[in-house]
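Technical note accompanying the year-one report. For the benefit of new consortium partners, we illustrate the data format agreed upon in the data management plan: each record pairs a sequence with a structure-token string. No post-processing was applied to the example shown here.
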Amino acid sequence: MCTVTFIKDYLGGYIVTSNRDEKITRETLLPENFQVGNLQVLYPKDKVAAGTWISMGSNGIVCCLLNGAFIAHERQARYRKSRGQVLLDVYRYGTLDEFTALYDFREIEPFTLILFDVQNDQKLTELRWDGSTKHIQHLDANQHHIWSSATLYSSGFIKNRTEYFENWNQNLQKIDENLIFSLHSSTDQENGFILKGEEGMETVSITQLHLSSSEGIMNYYETLNKQTTTKVQRWKKILQ
């Protein structure tokens, strides 16, 4: 869960794209709708921890997870809960504000969680848990954003990648999902988003969400066998 971009396209929709850098031996199930609390939640399932790194709920809430908060941390021998399960717990709360205010993050490994509420004023929230303190920032959904995992990339690399991304989108007038996918699938040695063979880690998949006011489309691309699985999640109006 290592590189994520959030972009508003020229047609008014939103595109969230996530590269998952992981050991190729770690098994993942293809995206399906699972029951989480009272909701249907679409996500690819990590078979080891039974969690995920990217999801779309039938309530129009989108979540995306990156390992680490601000800097690389020293891992503890064990944690109370997998970070991929924390992401799914979002859907057990009535609103994002309830989750961020009430959830117990203690004894959970540091992470960055991107939360986007498609149905309620397109509220975009970044939550970073550093192991002792949660840091919450509300972001402008009309702006483009990028995040890179603090556990895999150095601060200098993250800074350079962010600058590269900003220059890339400034030079484009009409950004669509194909252009964004090309960016995320780039293998350029200096600026490419595809990771190959770093301490057994590789980019094993690219997941792209195309979000509109009525539905979300998930395209899940497996980089090893070059196959794409497409699923649709239609939003259901949730009464608060």
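Partners are asked to follow this layout when depositing records. The mean pLDDT is 91.
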